[in-house]
Write a structure and sequence with these properties.
The complex is a heterodimer of chains A (about 650) and B (about 550). Chain A is mainly alpha-helical and about 650 residues long. Chain A contains 26 helices and two strands. Chain A is about 75% helix and about 5% strand. Helix content of chain B is about 75%, strand content about 0%. Chain B has about 550 residues and is mainly alpha-helical. The chains are: A mainly alpha (about 650), B mainly alpha (about 550). The interface of A and B includes residues 638, 647 and 649 of A.
């Protein structure tokens, strides 16, 4: 039994949500539409249990036998001569940790959604798309080669499209879905080019051969060192699209048009982390491309700063959280980029990025779900100017939101504190020496500034929503109700995780040591706790919270004053530094102009040509048609003629060879 | 005496599944007249019983087939090698689907005989695959043709069906005569009707002590018996009728249009298996045979001829299909073009085999004949699926004939529209359907064939300053010298796949974008058997995309 499980647990993880999806699509649409969430919750429970088993038993077992990963060949898709495309699942330490995170958060979100989505006409459709999403995400993480990874990278994008546009009758939702899809496609283009380049260079796309044999990498490195820069920059473009980094971050805030559980699951905890996962997975390549590492850090810093500035003044609660997600993803990329400062730092840079992703998944999920709970109670109103003082009406939501906000702000001893502090520490280490010390010092400064702003805008949202005089919008009715049990349960669990999981796995090095088993990660030196950074980040967190308290609870008048005084800066922040506008004006509009020129060309030149070409079949047909006139004697005559022509040709050819 | 009985027994064991089918045929033909009264009426629902009996016969034949794995080649009249085994599996599987398609097509009184005809046709195809003798091959071919005439006429005996049947009958006997002519010349040239014997005779004549190489083929051809060349052309032309190869395809659109839908479905697929497998039997010595394919001088004369036939078949099929408004005529031309695709596989497979026997064997990724056999199965699933949807979508008073009958199908019967769309996607060769993989295999096989030096040289090794025109010029010059003919086939295949997508997508557009014309919900009849058939075809069409190895493994054992 144990042996069987050890070998087969890995395919149970994606299979369970896939079966749930099939069941909902084939049966759930008709029978038991109201209970369409059940197969998904069941399937995710199985996946979660399987992930835990993989994490705790199957993988350590494999490691004991000195295998680097659990590998399960599913089948040979194409095996024709030299063309061989196997579908193989592969789980190493990094995948196992990621899977545990994905399945646990999805399970809780699914339970939450079962109550949140109640009464929606598309109830089964929602859960079908969500199970397809979890399946794709698990397959993405379990992919054993770049080809499979790319297939599910796209599948995840497709599910995201389906879920953002879930309320497709709303024009804004349809537009947001389209935007997300198109912007992601730009990134995907980079990714597929990167994959082509890997194929071209290495002749294989298998992770095990690519990452576990330093010999091959060193060989290539000696022959063509610059190739790694190209590969890494292309892969990073893919990550930029999926993880909403500058300048492709524009889709994520709009993606909040989707149902809130979707925002919590896909656009906060799981899908957007695929980019981080990709870069972390390809660390063996990235360590040979220090300039790309610096680009990664730079882009991460820029994104973190821009998103944090934008989040300062948003009134839409979900948008605040969306910008904060973008900003936190920027943190992860800063950390990944810190690997460029030295060979020894790479392991820690990757570990801390992955760890921040891990803790972020929990506290961001709880924040989003609490926001969803607020929306639920307020009759789908999410503008923070229209409600306030909800802490008495929605006590559970209040406490869970507070837990998430404290963790995100980086209050000492909570999850966000540990992971963010480690990122700051690794950046500080990077800025202490090496040739790019100045660059990393700048990045560290941005990270610290962002950390202050994070605490501020998170608590701005918290105080605006839950403090002040009690005020409800008319959509909410007179007695807003707090989260029902199916929503409160997941909220509570996630809140506890947001508070405690960092302390449990961070300072104890549980996470770091486990991740260390990932094959291909470079060795690193010991990395001590950075007490200075801990102190600074604690002070910044408290300062940010204090400032928010001062401005939004004690004397709200100051905010009005500030708005008037700094109206230009305020406007800029409100409009996301005009990046969207800039994008529309300077990228989309010229493209549109180009498109209309193309359209003109297409309509008048190509169409005419095509019409001419289209005339050929007609011409051809009018030549053949007289033969095809339904007269059987004609047919026989033409057949005979054809036979005679064939005979003459062949006999002449024979004669010609004499 | 005992030895003779022993031999007979052995021969019988080689064709046991066909024996089962033919026994069922005899039973039905014998019993059916007794169940119809003198006014020609039968008890209602009799067709269900005949259908079930046919399915049962196919099931038993299937069990027998599964229990009789390929055996080493004998010199007798029958052979049971991997090819036979594969084709049998194909025929029996698709035979069951055809039975389901035919379920409600014939009235109760005639259904018995029409099922018997269908089973006889299937047995005939299997016998072609199993034959090792010219006489047996011809008889098996006729066992396919003759019941087909009845099968076309029996279900509906109205004027269009009569016209279709008569056309098919006349042209079919014409083509049979051509085949017989070719066979007689072949017999004259070699002095035996046994296929193994024929191959042995050629190989004995071919292995010349001075030139054991490939180079020996052409000189030998020069002083070869021109009888063989005539036989080759005759056989290809006669079998080309079964394949609907241009210019022997003329019957197809007319017959498809007039015949009952299930008969059209049968015609679109079963004669193609018959034609291709007969060609394979004539050209390729059975697996495990010592003599290589190049031993037979038929091949060098045949490949250029087949090359031109394939090109003409692809282009005529697709270009004519573009102009059709009748859905069955369109599918008829589509089946013509698909025959062209499969001929590409056959040609490059033959060239590959010739080279394999030559001085420097080229081993490449995809065998053309394997790709063809794979495509045959895929084509069966998708085309029968499309016909199944047409049958299921028919109204009580009117069957699906023109595009107008399909317009707005996505509103009135969304599931059927989706099914048909999937089959059409597959026919057009788009992923994620098996049609995509099938075309990809054919394309790879053709592209990998030959060293391709001149083609690639023209594309890449000329100086970049040479310009597009001179490159094209160089390519055409190389083509004029007869180099890289397979690569050209690959290019033409790709062009035709694009042409094909045009009219398949047009149908999808009609179904999904146009408003329904005079269609009300009430007069739709639910035809469960054809829906089941469509479902099975769907499983095949999607399943062979995701698990192609399931079919590819037995195919690879055919052409090692």
């Amino acid at each position: 039994m144990t042996n069987w499980l050890n070998e087969n647990v890995i395919w149970l993880i994606p299979a369970a949500p896939l079966l749930a999806c099939l069941w909902i699509v084939l049966v759930g649409q008709v029978i038991g539409r109201k209970y369409a969430h059940r197969p998904l919750v069941l399937g995710l429970a199985v996946s979660f249990a399987a992930s835990l088993y993989l994490l705790a038993i199957a993988l350590p077992h494999a490691l004991e036998d000195s295998h680097h990963a659990v590998i399960a060949p599913i089948y040979q898709w194409i095996n024709v001569g030299t063309i061989n495309v196997p579908v193989t699942l592969r789980a190493d330490a990094m995948s196992a940790l990621m899977l545990t995170m994905v399945t646990s958060v999805s399970l809780l979100v699914a339970i939450f959604a079962s109550s949140y989505m109640k009464g929606d006409p598309g109830y089964p459709r929602f859960f079908a798309a969500m199970s397809l999403f979890v399946f794709s995400m698990c397959m993405l993480v379990l992919a054993s080669n770049f080809l499979l990874l790319f297939v599910f990278w796209e599948a995840v994008g497709l599910c995201s499209y389906l879920l953002i546009g879930f309320w497709f009758h709303k024009p804004s939702a349809a537009a947001a879905a389209k935007k997300a899809f198109v912007v992601n496609r730009i990134g995907d283009f980079g990714l597929i080019l990167g994959i082509f380049l890997i194929w071209q260079t290495f002749g294989t796309l298998e992770f095990s051969t690519l990452f576990e044999s330093p010999k091959m990498i060193n060989g290539i490195l000696a022959a063509q060192p610059e190739i790694f820069h190209w590969i890494c920059i292309l892969l990073f473009i893919g990550a930029v699209g999926k993880s909403a980094q500058f300048p492709l971050q524009v889709w994520l805030p709009d993606a909040m048009e989707g149902p809130t559980p979707v925002s919590a699951l896909i656009h906060a905890a799981t899908m957007v982390t695929a980019g981080v996962y990709l870069v972390a997975r390809c660390t063996p390549f990235f360590v040979h491309a220090p300039y790309v590492q610096m680009t990664v850090a730079g882009i991460g810093a820029a994104t973190a700063l821009i998103a944090a500035i934008t989040a300062l003044t948003q009134y839409d609660l979900k948008r605040v959280l969306a910008y904060s997600t973008v900003s936190q993803l920027g943190y992860m990329f800063m950390s990944l980029g810190a690997a460029g400062a030295g060979e020894g730092l790479a392991l820690h840079a990757v570990t801390f990025a992955m760890f921040h992703m891990f803790t972020h998944a929990f506290f961001k999920a709880v924040l989003f779900l609490s926001a969803g709970s607020v929306m639920h109670a307020m009759g789908d109103v999410i503008d923070m100017r229209r409600f306030s003082g909800l802490r008495k009406a929605l006590p559970i939501t209040h406490y869970t939101f507070l837990a998430g906000a404290l963790a995100l702000a980086g209050v000492p001893l909570l999850s966000g504190f540990w992971s963010k502090d480690e990122i700051l520490a690794v950046l500080a280490a990077a800025s202490r020496g090496g040739e790019h010390a100045g660059f990393y010092a700048t990045i560290l400064g941005i990270a610290l500034l962002t950390s202050l702003m994070t605490a501020f805008y998170t608590f701005r949202a918290y105080f605006m929503t839950f403090w002040g005089e009690e005020k409800f919008p008319e959509e909410a009715g007179h007695h807003p109700h707090d989260a029902p049990p199916a929503m409160a349960g997941p909220l509570a669990i996630l809140a506890v995780a947001a508070l405690g999981i960092g302390l449990l796995t961070g300072p104890t090095h549980l996470y770091g040591h486990y991740l260390h088993h990932t094959p291909g990660l470079p060795e690193g030196y010991d990395f001590p706790m950075d007490w200075l950074m801990m102190g600074i980040s604690s002070i910044l967190a408290i300062a940010g919270i204090g400032a928010a308290y001062l401005l939004y609870v004690v004397s709200p008048g100051i905010v009005q004053n500030l708005q008037r005084r700094l109206s230009l800066a305020y406007q800029a922040s409100q409009n996301g530094l005009y990046i969207d506008w800039f994008g529309y004006k300077f990228i989309a509009a010229p493209l549109r102009g180009f498109a209309s020129i193309c359209e003109f060309f297409d309509r008048w030149v190509i169409d005419t040509l095509v019409d001419c070409v289209g005339f050929i079949p007609a011409l051809f047909g009018s030549m053949i048609r007289p033969v095809q006139n339904g007269m059987v004697q004609n047919y026989a005559a033409v057949m005979t003629l054809g036979l005679v022509v064939c005979l003459i040709t062949v006999l002449r050819a024979l004669a010609g060879t004499h | 005496m005992n030895a003779a009985i022993q031999q007979l027994n052995n021969a019988f064991s080689l064709i046991a599944p066909e024996a089962v089918l033919l026994a069922a045929v005899c039973l039905i033909f014998f019993a059916a007249p007794f169940l119809v009264n003198e006014r020609g009426e039968a008890p209602a629902g009799l067709r269900h019983r005949w259908g079930s009996l046919s399915l049962l016969a196919l099931l038993i034949a299937g069990c027998v087939w599964w229990q009789s794995p390929p055996v080493t080649r004998t010199l007798g009249p029958f052979v049971l090698d991997e090819l036979t085994w594969y084709i049998r599996g194909l025929t029996l599987t698709f035979g069951a689907i055809l039975v389901l398609l035919h379920w409600n097509q014939a009235d109760d009184a005639r259904s018995g005989e029409s099922y018997a005809c269908l089973l006889a046709i299937l047995a005939g195809v299997n016998l072609i695959a199993a034959s090792n003798d010219l006489v047996g091959l011809f008889v098996a071919l006729e066992l396919v043709s003759m019941p087909t005439y009845l099968f076309l006429l029996l279900p509906r005996r109205d004027a269009p069906a009569q016209e279709a049947t008569l056309k098919y009958f006349l042209l079919s006997i014409f083509s049979s005569a051509i085949v017989l002519f070719g066979m007689s010349y072949l017999y004259g040239a070699t002095g035996t009707t046994n296929l193994s014997g024929i191959h042995a005779a050629f190989s004995a004549a071919h292995i010349h002590p001075a030139n054991p190489d490939l180079a020996a083929v052409k000189p030998f051809l020069a002083d070869a018996n021109p009888l063989v060349a005539v036989a080759t052309v005759m056989l290809i032309a006669g079998l080309g009728f079964r394949l609907t190869a241009v210019p022997f395809h003329f019957y197809a659109p007319d017959v498809f249009q007039g015949a009952p839908t299930s008969a059209a479905a049968m015609l679109s697929f079963v004669p193609k298996i018959a034609g291709f497998v007969a060609l394979l039997r004539l050209i390729v010595p059975a697996t495990g045979a010592e003599q290589a394919i190049s031993a037979w001088t038929m091949t060098p004369a045949a490949t250029p001829l087949l090359w031109w036939l394939a090109v003409a078949t692809m282009f005529v099929g697709n270009l004519m299909a573009l102009m059709q408004t009748d859905i069955r005529r369109l599918l008829a031309y589509s089946s013509v073009s698909h025959a062209g695709y499969m001929m590409v596989g056959l040609i490059v497979g033959m060239e590959h085999e010739i080279q394999k026997a030559g001085s420097n064997p080229v081993v490449h990724s995809v065998s053309g004949i394997g790709a063809m056999l794979f495509y045959l199965a895929v084509y069966g699933a998708m085309t029968l699926g499309a016909f199944a949807v047409l049958i299921a979508a028919a109204r009580s008073d009117k069957r699906i004939e023109t595009f107008d009958d399909l317009s707005g199908l996505s509103r009135t019967r969304p599931a059927l529209a989706l099914l048909l769309a999937i089959f059409l996607f597959s026919l057009a060769g788009l992923p994620p359907t098996a049609g995509f993989l099938g075309k990809l295999n054919l394309f790879f096989a053709a592209w990998a064939q030959g060293d391709g030096s001149s083609f690639l040289h023209c594309l890449s090794e000329l100086p970049p300053t040479a310009g597009l025109f001179s490159k094209l010029n160089a390519i055409f010059e190389a083509w004029g010298r007869g180099e890289d003919s397979s690569k050209w086939l690959a290019v033409i295949l790709a062009i035709n796949a694009a042409l094909g997508a045009w009219y398949y997508l047009k149908i999808i557009g009609v179904m999904f974008l146009r408003e329904p014309i005079n269609r009300s919900q009430q007069d739709t009849v639910s035809d469960t058997p054809s829906l089941i058939a469509a479902g099975l075809c769907l499983v095949g069409t999607l399943g062979l995309f995701f698990l192609p190895g399931w079919l590819w493994v037995p195919i690879q054992s055919i052409m090692p």
